Amino acid sequence: MNLLKGKNGIIFGALNDMSIAWKTAEQAHAQGAGLVLTNAPVAMRMGAIQELAAACDNAPVIPADATSTEDLEALFQGAMDHFGGKIDFVLHSIGMSPNVRKGRHYTDLKYPWLQQTLDVSAISLHKTLQTAMKLDALSEWGSVVALTYIAAQRTFPDYNDMADAKSLLESITRSFGYHYGVANKVRVNSISQSPTMTTAGSGVKGFDEFMAYSESMSPLGNATGEACAEYCVAMFSDLTRYVTMQNLFHDGGFSNTGVSTEVISKFVKD
Question: Which CATH number fits domain 8-265: 3.30.420.40, 3.40.50.970, 3.40.50.720, 1.10.10.350?
Fold first, then answer.
């Protein structure tokens, strides 16, 4: 449909073909967008981002630690040099928790790890937006999308300190969305996706069981990673130019369902 024909964007966080960022890059490319791909240097060594770049007309891959303003400045400048102008959209798909990886319970966190979780998973969005604004890197009516999860609003015990990070991420979306909208009509939104089998998601304790629960609670079922990529493309396009500062649930109706008949049936006595 060429929804993004003539537009150029940066995709953060494509690790492998399980990543929503990877699927979003594929969809954006299919819709006519020019791309620059980026990830942290350590993640790039673990993943297969060069394969994605080749499939997207040899899109440049610029390594950047999103917690480093110096790296972000080099990323945005490099992208503008490549595109020969400003950037139209950005996907922030970044999340990491050492406490989750090491199996620390929420009531027994290591605080330096918590600080790292917040920096990587949330404050990096502020740094990305602040860097883009200072460099005047985003086009008027540009679009920035960050991926989040409903644990920012509701308690899911095993989501751990990532819930705190997502809460901060959504707050930054609203606050920076106001200032960037006033300054240059740039839109900033977050998408709260269904639990999705990604490399990061699979590291959460009890993830398979929770995916099954979410599927049984959602009238439409869990939204797939491919469907989320399509939603991201819609948010990058001009069709959503007046949507900003929103946390948009893309979860098959899970967020507004108190209980489903399928779940109730599991508690009904024979």
Answer: 3.40.50.720
Question: Mean pLDDT score of the chain, rounded to an integer?
Answer: 95
Instruction: Compute the distance between CA of residue 89 and CA of residue 198 in angstroms, rounded to an integer.
Output: 23
Residue with the bigger pLDDT between 202 and 221: it is: 221
Can you tell me the mean pLDDT for 195-211? 76
Q: Is the pLDDT of residue 201 over 90?
A: no
Predicted local confidence at residue 204, as pLDDT: 64
142 in the Ramachandran plot: left (φ > 0), alpha (ψ -120 to 50) or beta?
Answer: beta
Q: Which residue has the tokens 């008949």?
A: 261
Query: Which residue type is seen at 166?
Result: K
Q: Which residues, at least 6 apart from 80, have a Cβ–Cβ distance to it below 8 Å? A: 86, 87, 135, 137
Strands, sheet with 187-193, edge to edge from the N-terminal-most edge strand: 34-38, 8-12, 87-92, 138-148, 187-193, 247-250
Answer yes or no: pTM beyond 0.90.
yes
Domain-wise residue ranges, the chain: 8-265
Quick: pLDDT tens for 97-112: 999 999 999 999 999 9
- How do 8-12 and 34-38 pair as beta strands? parallel
Q: How far is CA 215 from the centre of its chain?
A: 21
